[in-house]
Specification:
Number of strands of chain A: 7
Strand content of chain A: 35-45%
CATH architecture of chain A: 4-Layer Sandwich
Structural class of chain A: alpha+beta
Radius of gyration of chain A: 16 Å
Shape of chain A: elongated
Oligomer: homodimer
Number of domains of chain A: 1
Largest interface: A-B, 48 and 48 residues
Number of helices of chain A: 2
CATH superfamily of chain A: S-adenosylmethionine decarboxylase
Protein backbone atom coordinates (compact mmCIF):
# COMPACT_ATOMS: atom_id res chain seq x y z
CA UNK A 1 0.00 0.00 0.00
CA UNK A 2 1.20 3.48 -0.88
CA UNK A 3 -0.29 6.78 0.27
CA UNK A 4 -1.03 9.90 -1.77
CA UNK A 5 -0.71 12.18 1.24
CA UNK A 6 0.36 12.44 4.84
CA UNK A 7 -1.23 14.51 7.55
CA UNK A 8 -0.03 15.57 10.97
CA UNK A 9 -2.70 16.44 13.54
CA UNK A 10 -1.03 18.54 16.25
CA UNK A 11 -2.29 19.46 19.69
CA UNK A 12 -0.28 22.43 21.02
CA UNK A 13 -0.98 22.72 24.74
CA UNK A 14 0.48 25.28 27.20
CA UNK A 15 1.00 27.91 24.51
CA UNK A 16 1.54 31.63 25.09
CA UNK A 17 -2.04 32.95 25.28
CA UNK A 18 -1.19 36.38 23.85
CA UNK A 19 0.52 34.92 20.80
CA UNK A 20 -2.29 32.49 19.97
CA UNK A 21 -4.91 35.24 20.35
CA UNK A 22 -3.16 37.57 17.88
CA UNK A 23 -4.45 36.96 14.36
CA UNK A 24 -1.61 38.92 12.69
CA UNK A 25 1.08 37.00 14.59
CA UNK A 26 -0.56 33.66 13.85
CA UNK A 27 -0.86 34.47 10.15
CA UNK A 28 2.82 35.51 10.04
CA UNK A 29 3.95 32.40 11.94
CA UNK A 30 1.99 29.95 9.79
CA UNK A 31 3.02 31.60 6.52
CA UNK A 32 6.67 31.65 7.68
CA UNK A 33 6.43 28.00 8.76
CA UNK A 34 5.08 26.90 5.37
CA UNK A 35 7.75 28.94 3.59
CA UNK A 36 10.43 27.37 5.81
CA UNK A 37 9.23 23.98 4.55
CA UNK A 38 9.45 25.31 0.97
CA UNK A 39 5.72 24.84 0.43
CA UNK A 40 4.01 26.82 -2.35
CA UNK A 41 1.36 29.08 -0.84
CA UNK A 42 -1.75 29.50 -3.01
CA UNK A 43 -4.22 31.29 -0.71
CA UNK A 44 -4.78 32.01 2.97
CA UNK A 45 -7.61 33.19 5.23
CA UNK A 46 -7.33 34.05 8.91
CA UNK A 47 -10.11 35.30 11.19
CA UNK A 48 -10.24 36.58 14.77
CA UNK A 49 -13.19 35.73 16.97
CA UNK A 50 -14.66 37.63 19.89
CA UNK A 51 -13.85 37.44 22.73
CA UNK A 52 -11.04 34.92 22.03
CA UNK A 53 -9.61 32.70 19.36
CA UNK A 54 -8.34 32.61 15.82
CA UNK A 55 -9.15 30.28 12.91
CA UNK A 56 -7.29 30.12 9.65
CA UNK A 57 -6.36 28.01 6.65
CA UNK A 58 -3.55 28.11 4.11
CA UNK A 59 -4.01 26.25 0.83
CA UNK A 60 -0.60 25.15 -0.45
CA UNK A 61 0.19 23.39 -3.73
CA UNK A 62 1.06 20.39 -1.56
CA UNK A 63 -2.37 20.45 0.27
CA UNK A 64 -3.12 22.64 3.34
CA UNK A 65 -2.41 23.91 6.84
CA UNK A 66 -5.30 24.76 9.19
CA UNK A 67 -5.41 26.22 12.72
CA UNK A 68 -7.93 26.90 15.48
CA UNK A 69 -6.86 28.47 18.75
CA UNK A 70 -8.45 28.62 22.20
CA UNK A 71 -6.24 31.16 24.04
CA UNK A 72 -8.36 30.78 27.20
CA UNK A 73 -7.07 27.18 27.36
CA UNK A 74 -3.57 28.00 26.00
CA UNK A 75 -4.41 25.49 23.26
CA UNK A 76 -4.10 25.42 19.47
CA UNK A 77 -5.18 22.65 17.07
CA UNK A 78 -3.16 22.51 13.84
CA UNK A 79 -3.51 20.19 10.82
CA UNK A 80 -0.65 19.88 8.34
CA UNK A 81 -1.66 17.93 5.21
CA UNK A 82 1.03 17.42 2.56
CA UNK A 83 1.57 15.36 -0.55
CA UNK A 84 4.64 14.71 -2.61
CA UNK A 85 8.21 14.21 -1.53
CA UNK A 86 9.39 17.80 -1.72
CA UNK A 87 8.30 19.11 1.67
CA UNK A 88 8.54 17.82 5.22
CA UNK A 89 5.42 18.56 7.32
CA UNK A 90 7.48 18.21 10.50
CA UNK A 91 9.39 21.38 9.60
CA UNK A 92 6.07 23.22 9.87
CA UNK A 93 5.14 21.43 13.10
CA UNK A 94 8.42 22.41 14.80
CA UNK A 95 8.37 26.01 13.57
CA UNK A 96 4.89 26.51 15.05
CA UNK A 97 5.84 24.78 18.34
CA UNK A 98 8.77 27.15 18.82
CA UNK A 99 6.74 30.22 17.83
CA UNK A 100 3.78 29.48 20.11
CA UNK A 101 6.15 28.67 23.04
CA UNK A 102 4.16 25.45 23.50
CA UNK A 103 5.41 23.35 26.42
CA UNK A 104 3.31 20.27 25.66
CA UNK A 105 2.80 18.98 22.12
CA UNK A 106 1.00 15.85 20.95
CA UNK A 107 1.18 14.86 17.27
CA UNK A 108 -0.29 12.04 15.20
CA UNK A 109 0.77 11.32 11.63
CA UNK A 110 -1.84 9.77 9.34
CA UNK A 111 -1.55 8.40 5.82
CA UNK A 112 -4.24 9.61 3.41
CA UNK A 113 -5.33 8.04 0.13
CA UNK A 114 -3.99 4.48 0.44
CA UNK A 115 -3.76 2.44 -2.76
CA UNK A 116 -2.38 -0.98 -3.51
CA UNK A 117 0.56 -0.88 -5.93
CA UNK A 118 2.74 -3.62 -7.38
CA UNK A 119 5.96 -4.34 -5.44
CA UNK A 120 8.57 -1.69 -6.16
CA UNK A 121 6.09 0.65 -7.84
CA UNK A 122 5.16 4.13 -6.70
CA UNK A 123 2.07 6.28 -6.96
CA UNK A 124 3.82 8.28 -9.65
CA UNK A 125 1.21 10.79 -10.61
CA UNK A 126 0.99 13.36 -7.86
CA UNK A 127 -0.52 16.44 -9.46
CA UNK A 128 0.01 18.57 -6.42
CA UNK A 129 3.76 18.07 -6.20
CA UNK A 130 5.46 21.42 -5.88
CA UNK A 131 7.21 22.42 -9.06
CA UNK A 132 5.05 20.20 -11.23
CA UNK A 133 1.71 21.86 -10.66
CA UNK A 134 -0.02 24.58 -12.64
CA UNK A 135 -2.61 26.51 -10.70
CA UNK A 136 -5.57 27.35 -12.91
CA UNK A 137 -7.59 29.48 -10.52
CA UNK B 1 -11.64 14.29 29.82
CA UNK B 2 -13.69 16.57 27.60
CA UNK B 3 -12.86 17.70 24.08
CA UNK B 4 -13.09 21.19 22.58
CA UNK B 5 -13.56 19.84 19.07
CA UNK B 6 -14.22 16.80 16.96
CA UNK B 7 -12.82 16.03 13.55
CA UNK B 8 -13.80 13.50 10.90
CA UNK B 9 -11.11 12.47 8.43
CA UNK B 10 -12.86 10.99 5.40
CA UNK B 11 -11.43 8.93 2.55
CA UNK B 12 -13.88 8.96 -0.37
CA UNK B 13 -12.83 6.20 -2.79
CA UNK B 14 -14.52 5.21 -6.08
CA UNK B 15 -15.92 8.69 -6.69
CA UNK B 16 -17.21 10.05 -10.00
CA UNK B 17 -14.02 11.40 -11.62
CA UNK B 18 -15.78 14.20 -13.52
CA UNK B 19 -17.49 15.55 -10.41
CA UNK B 20 -14.33 15.58 -8.28
CA UNK B 21 -12.36 17.30 -11.06
CA UNK B 22 -14.87 20.15 -11.37
CA UNK B 23 -13.92 23.01 -9.06
CA UNK B 24 -17.30 24.77 -9.40
CA UNK B 25 -19.25 21.60 -8.57
CA UNK B 26 -16.99 20.83 -5.61
CA UNK B 27 -17.34 24.34 -4.23
CA UNK B 28 -21.13 24.14 -4.58
CA UNK B 29 -21.30 20.70 -2.97
CA UNK B 30 -19.12 21.61 0.01
CA UNK B 31 -20.89 24.92 0.62
CA UNK B 32 -24.28 23.18 0.38
CA UNK B 33 -23.08 20.44 2.74
CA UNK B 34 -21.94 22.94 5.38
CA UNK B 35 -25.21 24.86 5.02
CA UNK B 36 -27.18 21.60 5.38
CA UNK B 37 -25.40 21.11 8.72
CA UNK B 38 -26.35 24.70 9.66
CA UNK B 39 -22.70 25.75 9.90
CA UNK B 40 -21.84 29.45 9.64
CA UNK B 41 -19.59 30.01 6.62
CA UNK B 42 -16.95 32.69 7.11
CA UNK B 43 -14.69 32.31 4.06
CA UNK B 44 -13.86 29.80 1.34
CA UNK B 45 -11.12 29.20 -1.24
CA UNK B 46 -11.13 26.57 -3.97
CA UNK B 47 -8.45 25.98 -6.61
CA UNK B 48 -8.19 23.77 -9.67
CA UNK B 49 -4.87 22.18 -10.56
CA UNK B 50 -3.52 21.11 -13.94
CA UNK B 51 -3.92 18.51 -15.26
CA UNK B 52 -6.15 17.13 -12.48
CA UNK B 53 -7.36 17.82 -9.00
CA UNK B 54 -9.00 20.39 -6.79
CA UNK B 55 -8.06 21.72 -3.34
CA UNK B 56 -10.21 23.90 -1.15
CA UNK B 57 -11.00 25.05 2.37
CA UNK B 58 -14.04 26.54 4.04
CA UNK B 59 -13.56 28.34 7.35
CA UNK B 60 -16.77 28.04 9.38
CA UNK B 61 -17.54 29.63 12.74
CA UNK B 62 -17.44 26.08 14.11
CA UNK B 63 -13.93 25.39 12.62
CA UNK B 64 -13.32 24.19 9.01
CA UNK B 65 -13.87 21.83 6.10
CA UNK B 66 -10.98 21.00 3.73
CA UNK B 67 -10.78 18.91 0.55
CA UNK B 68 -8.16 17.57 -1.86
CA UNK B 69 -9.16 15.47 -4.85
CA UNK B 70 -7.23 13.09 -7.11
CA UNK B 71 -9.71 12.42 -9.95
CA UNK B 72 -7.20 10.11 -11.66
CA UNK B 73 -7.61 7.80 -8.64
CA UNK B 74 -11.35 8.55 -8.14
CA UNK B 75 -10.31 9.66 -4.64
CA UNK B 76 -11.04 12.66 -2.43
CA UNK B 77 -9.68 13.41 1.06
CA UNK B 78 -11.97 15.53 3.24
CA UNK B 79 -11.50 16.86 6.77
CA UNK B 80 -14.49 18.08 8.77
CA UNK B 81 -13.46 19.84 11.99
CA UNK B 82 -16.26 21.13 14.23
CA UNK B 83 -16.70 22.48 17.73
CA UNK B 84 -19.78 23.16 19.77
CA UNK B 85 -22.99 21.19 20.03
CA UNK B 86 -24.96 22.97 17.33
CA UNK B 87 -23.78 21.12 14.22
CA UNK B 88 -23.29 17.48 13.31
CA UNK B 89 -20.19 16.87 11.15
CA UNK B 90 -21.70 13.61 9.90
CA UNK B 91 -24.38 15.59 8.04
CA UNK B 92 -21.55 17.09 5.99
CA UNK B 93 -19.85 13.71 5.52
CA UNK B 94 -23.04 12.09 4.17
CA UNK B 95 -23.95 15.01 1.90
CA UNK B 96 -20.52 14.84 0.24
CA UNK B 97 -20.64 11.03 -0.07
CA UNK B 98 -23.95 11.21 -1.94
CA UNK B 99 -22.80 14.09 -4.15
CA UNK B 100 -19.49 12.49 -5.17
CA UNK B 101 -21.25 9.14 -5.86
CA UNK B 102 -18.55 7.51 -3.72
CA UNK B 103 -18.94 3.75 -3.48
CA UNK B 104 -16.31 3.21 -0.78
CA UNK B 105 -15.96 5.54 2.20
CA UNK B 106 -13.65 5.25 5.20
CA UNK B 107 -14.05 7.71 8.10
CA UNK B 108 -12.25 8.26 11.39
CA UNK B 109 -13.53 10.55 14.12
CA UNK B 110 -10.93 12.19 16.36
CA UNK B 111 -11.33 14.28 19.50
CA UNK B 112 -9.30 17.50 19.51
CA UNK B 113 -8.27 19.58 22.52
CA UNK B 114 -8.75 17.18 25.40
CA UNK B 115 -8.88 18.67 28.91
CA UNK B 116 -9.53 17.17 32.30
CA UNK B 117 -12.68 18.53 33.94
CA UNK B 118 -14.33 17.79 37.27
CA UNK B 119 -17.05 15.10 37.17
CA UNK B 120 -20.26 16.49 35.72
CA UNK B 121 -18.59 19.67 34.47
CA UNK B 122 -18.33 20.79 30.84
CA UNK B 123 -15.88 22.84 28.86
CA UNK B 124 -18.34 25.69 28.93
CA UNK B 125 -16.51 28.39 27.10
CA UNK B 126 -16.54 27.55 23.43
CA UNK B 127 -15.96 30.83 21.62
CA UNK B 128 -16.60 29.32 18.20
CA UNK B 129 -20.08 28.04 18.96
CA UNK B 130 -22.44 29.16 16.22
CA UNK B 131 -24.72 31.91 17.40
CA UNK B 132 -22.40 32.99 20.18
CA UNK B 133 -19.48 34.15 18.12
CA UNK B 134 -18.67 37.59 16.78
CA UNK B 135 -16.37 37.61 13.81
CA UNK B 136 -13.97 40.52 14.00
CA UNK B 137 -12.19 40.13 10.67
Amino acid sequence: MKALGRQILVEYYDCDADIINDVAQIENILLSATRAAKASIISHNFHKFSPHGVSGTIVIAESHVAIHTWPEYNYAAVDIFTCGETIDPWTIQEYIKDSFLSKNVSSIEMKRGLFKVAPGEELLFKPKDAGKVNILN
